[in-house]
Amino acid sequence: MTPSATLAFLHHAAAFLVVAAVMVELVLIKGELTVGAARSLLRMDGLYGLSASVVLVVGFLRVFYTEKGSAYYFGSGTFIAKIVLFGVVALLSIYPTVQFLRMRTALRQNQAPAFDAAKLRTIRRIVHIELVLLFVIILCAALMARGIGFIG
Question: Residue 63: which residues within 8 A CB-CB, separation 6 or more?
Answer without folding.
Answer: 70, 73, 74
